[in-house]
Amino acid sequence: MLRLVIFMAFAMFPLSALAQSCSFSVSNMNFGLVDTLSGSQTNTTATINMNCSGIVGQRILICAHLAAGTGGASSATARQMFSGANALNYQLYSDSARSVVWGSYAWAYASRPPALALTPNVLGSATGTATIYGAVAGGQGTVPPGTYLSTFSGAQVEFRYRYTSGSSCSTASGTVAADPTFTINATVAANCLVSTQNIDFGSKGVLDGNVDATGQVSVTCTPAAAYTVSLNGGTTGSPPTTRKMSKGVETVTYGLYKNADRTQPWGDASVPGSTVPGTGTGVPQVFTVYGRVPPQATPSAGVYTDTVVVTVTY
Description:
Blueprint: E1 21-26, E2 29-34, E3 42-53, E4 60-66, E5 73-75, E6 78-83, E7 86-93, E8 115-118, E9 125-136, E10 146-152, E11 157-163, E12 175-176, E13 182-188, E14 192-197, E15 211-221, E16 226-231, E17 243-247, E18 250-257, E19 276-279, E20 285-293, E21 310-313
Parallel strand pairs: 2-13
Antiparallel strand pairs: 1-3, 3-9, 4-8, 4-11, 5-6, 6-7, 7-9, 10-13, 11-12, 14-15, 15-20, 16-19, 16-21, 17-18, 18-20
């Protein structure tokens, strides 16, 4: 007698594995201290964390739509953070070269989000990360100091996902995930830049009368930053009106002044009232330095020089 038995193999899968389900979080993006007077760009990044479950081996396309944030955008290339009524321009990108703007189907500009994707493993789950690249453009010198912020939440950030082999993120397609919230922030600190133009008294045969010449100090400070400009006593540490240009042990006495009449000496904190005050505007402010060589005994012929250190305190 033959006994025929067919053994039925079966497997159990949770129903949730048949449909895709994804969740997302985004880290805050902090630019730290930003030097708006510099022409250099300030870069940083944020990270998207992705967790999905679904059909084994079935590709899930993820579209992370990022609109303008609460700071808005002044153009297709400039999102904004705000500190009160003051704006700081920045941008979000999908590439490390920071050339492709990360956008959304739901904003006024052409840029769209990059195509992200996860494929569930044999357990029906998948995880991954993606990087958002941020940049604050240099040369925003008229931006005042402060803490600048833009928030992405609600309608400003929308994650959509769907089963597909395609890579289009140009429309509102797919299931909408719970919206993550993240912030973009930067701190603009008070800062100053300084440049100078030397003073050349030229050639003089005999020092029997005043010899006048001028130079310049150019100061660029962030708006509303109070500052003072001081000039030290040169290599000999002399008082403002009796500084010394030298050639070996021989010297020529000269003075530096704040006014064209050469009545207001320009010195440093060691001489009260001799410094020059200012308030930053974000653009260069030029101060004339008035020099004078008074009549004096004429030393031997040659080139006489001195080095004066300009200090901007803010």
